[in-house]
Design a protein that fits this description.
disordered N terminus; mainly alpha; Rhopdopsin 7-helix transmembrane proteins
Length: 317
């Protein structure tokens, strides 16, 4: 059940270090790259996972409580929170079971452990795919709201939003099941990497286009009010900073994991690539960190949601 254990299917095969890969610390009579291996304590891993769980549960509760937030945009944000919640829960569950097994506090048959491992792997993989999909869906929704503002409510209707949400969840479950079933095929890794690249390109193109339109609009206002030129420049810098932060966090948190997948295809036996493979748990930790940051970027910036969130927290006391 461990991330580094032999019983893991897709994620376990990604984390396995090929036999030819040298260890982190080489004896004096051996040559090879010196690897930087970042050790993530289980306590830190579990702590980050629990923070993500609490944070995303609050987002889901706030959106469910406030009827004013029952719109396609907030439904996409809610589904993103559910996906991030599943990512964190599955990783916390796996690590907890691993620690219990290692401590001898939980004894069970190997077949049961294998079945549980398969379920958790499917949950993790499906949650990752759905999380990326909903990040893309949010980008598309915001793009339509800016470029087709007058037609937005006729384009992004609740039935269409529900169809999109349902399609994403079904596709995530089916794809994760196939990925786990055929984890040892190169095509699986290539599909995952291609999917990440597609989402990255989609988000970059849409958000850059949105920023360009916003700057164009600000320049039009500045021409009408010449004294507002400094404000326009400040808006451009703020927009660029926001865009850089949004895409930067996405790439920083997800990029290393998919770099790992790419290297599994390109150079599975190369010593330098082996150094990357040793940090697989760090890459999963970064994905959990993304689950913590997502609500800050997409949910908590809404004043209406923050107000509802305060009511949820006060009611829980």
């Amino acid at each position: 059940m461990s991330i580094q254990g032999a019983q893991r299917r897709l994620l376990g095969s990604l984390n396995s270090t090929p036999p030819a890969t040298p260890h982190l610390r080489l004896p004096a009579n051996q040559t090879g790259p010196r690897c930087l291996e970042v050790s993530i304590p289980d306590g830190l891993f579990l702590g980050l996972g629990l923070v993500s769980v609490v944070e995303n549960v609050l987002v889901v509760a706030a959106i469910a409580k406030n009827r004013n937030l029952h719109s396609p945009m907030y439904y996409f944000i809610c589904c993103l929170a559910v996906s991030d919640l599943l990512v964190s829960v599955s990783n916390v569950l796996e690590t907890t079971v691993m620690l219990l097994l290692e401590a001898g506090a939980m004894a069970t048959r190997a077949a049961v452990v294998q079945q549980l491992d398969d379920i958790i792997d499917i949950l993790i993989c499906g949650a990752m795919v759905s999380s990326l999909c909903f990040l893309g869906a949010i980008a598309v929704d915001r793009y339509i709201s800016i470029f087709y503002a007058l037609r937005y409510h006729s384009i992004v209707t609740l039935p269409r939003a529900w169809w999109a949400i349902s399609a994403i969840w079904v596709a995530s479950v089916l794809s994760s099941t196939l990925f786990i079933a055929y984890y040892n095929h190169t095509a699986v890794l290539l599909c995952l990497v291609s999917f990440f690249v597609a989402m990255l390109v989609l988000m970059a193109v849409l958000y850059v286009h949105m920023l360009a339109r916003a700057c164009q609009h600000a320049r039009g206002i500045a021409r009408l009010h010449k004294g507002q030129r400094p404000a326009h420049q400040g808006f451009g810098l703020k927009g660029a900073a926001t865009l850089t932060t949004l895409l930067g966090i996405f790439f920083l948190c997800w990029g290393p994991f998919f770099l790992h997948l790419s290297l599994m295809v390109l150079c599975p036996q190369h010593p330098t690539c082996g150094c990357v493979f040793k940090n697989f748990k760090l890459f999963l930790t970064l994905i959990i960190c993304n689950s913590i940051v997502d609500p800050l970027i997409y949910a908590f910036r809404s004043q209406e949601l923050r107000k509802t969130l305060q009511e949820v927290v006060l009611c829980s006391w």
